[in-house]
Amino acid sequence: MRNRLCKIVATIGPASSSPSMLRLIHDAGVDIFRLNMSHGGHDKLRTVVQSIRDIEKTLATPLAIFADLQGPKIRTGAFAAGSINLKYGGEYRLTLSNDAADEDTIPIPHKELLDVLEPGDILKLDDGKLQITVKEKTERHLIARADTPGILSDRKGINVPGRRLPISAMTDKDREDLAFALDLNVEYIALSFVQQPDDVREAAELIKGRAGIISKIEKPSAVERLDEIIELSDAIMVARGDLGVECAPEDVPLIQRRIIRDCRTAGKPVIVATHMLESMVESIAPTRAEASDVSTAVYQGADAVMLSAETAVGRHPPTAVAIMDRIIAATEKDDESGSYKSAEREAETYTTADAITLSARRIAEVLDCSLAVAYTKTGSTARRLSRDRPHCRVIAATPDEKVARQLALYWGVQPVVTEDISHFHEMVEKADTLAKTHGGKDGDRIIIIAGYPFGKRGRTNTLKISRIGAIE
Prior knowledge:
CATH superfamily of the largest domain: Phosphoenolpyruvate-binding domains
CATH class of the largest domain: Alpha Beta
Number of domains: 3
Structural class: alpha/beta
Helix content: 25-40%
Strand order of the largest sheet: 1-2-3-14-15-16-17-18
Radius of gyration: 24 Å
Shape: elongated
């Protein structure tokens, strides 16, 4: 088992797609692999997935893979010279076109964007490096003023802070990529540029339960309806790239904290992503600020933190993973770490399963248990334990390989694929073996959670305290 509870997500790219490098970054600490569907052909991605499954088989360790859909990325068109030079205070025409020959024209091949823009709207270009403001709207085009000087090249991204665009979160490319990813049996699908709950519903209708849904929060409109989006999603990602472009910089840390808090309350995993160890794309060490950023996410209670360019195109993928692993482990050892803080939930009708996992949390703390072994058919017992943050690691024993892989995303959970148990003695005996296999020592107290009658779904009603090596 890892020497930490928060999980690590790594983006796979040219620097990390070979079988040997995938094994290296896994051994360094990667728990979940992210496929960026914006890059790489389907044949290449299929090979990557097979390599990950080979690692999984060799190590007998369930690993999660998620496909990150590109989403409706709004971009400029092309310029005759490949770029234009925006001059401060200069006026430029925004036209509905794929390309433009004039230096005072910015082509925008998105009618829906031009239709919704009004005078006073701000457009941020090239990941926020450049900014223009709409000054006038005519029947044929818009006039905008350049607020920042700089070079605007072909096909650069456009963000419109504060404006919800009338477009679906799923493009034709996304639908093709989704079908491909589902055929590969990935565990999760990540939705980009979610604006409203209906975007998640649309994806769910296509996925039909074949994979979990990770909603990426990177639009202010999504933040406004966060609770609804969390309820409809299986997990949430704090995608700070575009979120940082569309929101004021000072608001991003507050939004991150709110998203983590609300996900914890709802019992949904939350991933903090983007620029976590960005300098390690080139450097062999992160900046002090980056190390603090990772630590802050752990303090706040994130289930996972993610590496993007650091592992996709960086020069030192295994080193970046290893350093993130060390930062997480060091943070979790701090008595003030939020790792074990239970989420504050409003009064509700608790189930028997809730009572069992909440009791397990308290028992683990009082008796200093080293492990909790949760027998689970659907994964719900392990998910509840993860939500309640017990003071020990959780071994999730399930006969369902898909469930085991999905649980790899959850805080503190080590999934194991094993056959169902049939009686109490087998329950204790197998838990003892699993505990020893995953770092437990003779004499350590462990908690065993199961449902009786065994093998039934949704019947978590049994809790036993045992000692490793003390089977009668």
